[in-house]
């Protein structure tokens, strides 16, 4: 799971990145609201941790802009202990949860996991018609029959199912795989998508992945 951390306190930012990565998250950080907005707009994230007292644009304005743009990933805000008004503003702007400073990193990690579970459902199963993807075991079945997928085919399928209905550009998919130490070659995306389509079509020509010329790919629910 990839988390965007937007925090202007450099020491705290580094601590958050290091300690959350130790608990299994993939983290990228921004030091101000504008940088956070750019990263969230251009790159794929599963959630964000946002400090409210940010330079350039504050955390509340950042969240408002992201929600206005249609960004749906969960956002956890960091607030001062006596900033109850800011907490209310942050939640009203579209944040999903908050934590008061100072906090324990173990609790923050647990809150992040809870928010991510909430976005994928309590049973951790992504389902579309005959296709089922188990996020816990990373097993995929089609019509009740287990599918044989490579690691990268699985990563693309999971990413697209999580964002069903969204148009995902080839560059975004390339960036996502590149962060996983994958060779940065957008042509490989076409090959992986082609393989996925062929494997999915084996079940009654099931075809949830469409190409939008000049824009990218879209996972369209078949139910």
Q: What's the domain count?
A: 2
What can be said about the biggest beta sheet? 5 strands, parallel
What's the CATH architecture of the largest domain?
Answer: 3-Layer(aba) Sandwich
Summarize the helix and strand pattern as letters: EHEHEHEHEHEEEEHEHHEE
CATH top level of the largest domain? Alpha Beta
| Count of β-strands | 12
Give the rounded overall mean pLDDT.
Answer: 86
User: Distance between termini?
Assistant: 26 Å
Description of the molecule:
This protein is of the alpha/beta class. It folds into 2 domains: 2-120, Rossmann fold (3-Layer(aba) Sandwich), CATH 3.40.50.2300; 125-219, Arc Repressor Mutant, subunit A (Orthogonal Bundle), CATH 1.10.10.10. 43% of the residues lie in helices and 22% in strands. The protein contains 8 helices and 12 strands. It has helices at 10-22, 33-42, 59-68, 84-93, 105-120, 151-162, 170-178, 186-200, and strands at 2-6, 26-30, 47-51, 75-80, 97-101, 125-128, 131-134, 139-142, 145-146, 167-168, 209-212, 216-219. A 5-stranded parallel beta sheet has the order 2-1-3-4-5, with helices on both faces. Strand 8 and strand 9 (145-146) form a beta hairpin. The radius of gyration is 19 Å and the shape is elongated.
């Amino acid at each position: 799971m990839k988390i965007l951390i937007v925090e202007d306190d450099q020491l705290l930012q580094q601590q958050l990145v290091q300690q959350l990565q130790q608990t299994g998250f993939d983290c990228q950080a921004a030091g101000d609201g504008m940088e956070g907005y750019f990263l969230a707009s251009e790159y794929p994230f599963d959630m964000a941790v946002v400090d409210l007292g940010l330079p350039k644009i504050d955390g509340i304005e950042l969240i408002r802009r992201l929600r206005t743009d249609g960004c749906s990933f969960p956002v956890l805000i960091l607030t001062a202990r006596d900033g109850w008004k800011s907490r209310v503003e942050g939640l009203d702007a579209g944040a999903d949860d908050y934590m008061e400073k100072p906090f324990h990193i173990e609790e923050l990690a647990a809150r992040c996991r809870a928010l991510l579970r909430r976005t994928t459902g309590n049973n951790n199963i992504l389902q579309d018609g005959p296709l089922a993807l188990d996020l816990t075991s990373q097993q995929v079945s089609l019509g009740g029959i287990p599918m044989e997928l490579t690691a990268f085919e699985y990563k693309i399928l999971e990413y697209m199912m999580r964002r069903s209905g969204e148009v995902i550009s080839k560059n975004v998919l390339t960036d996502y795989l590149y962060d996983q130490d994958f060779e940065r070659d957008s042509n490989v995306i076409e090959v992986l998508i082609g393989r996925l389509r062929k494997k999915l079509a084996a079940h009654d020509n099931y075809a949830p992945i469409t190409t939008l010329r000049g824009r990218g790919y879209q996972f369209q629910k078949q139910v």
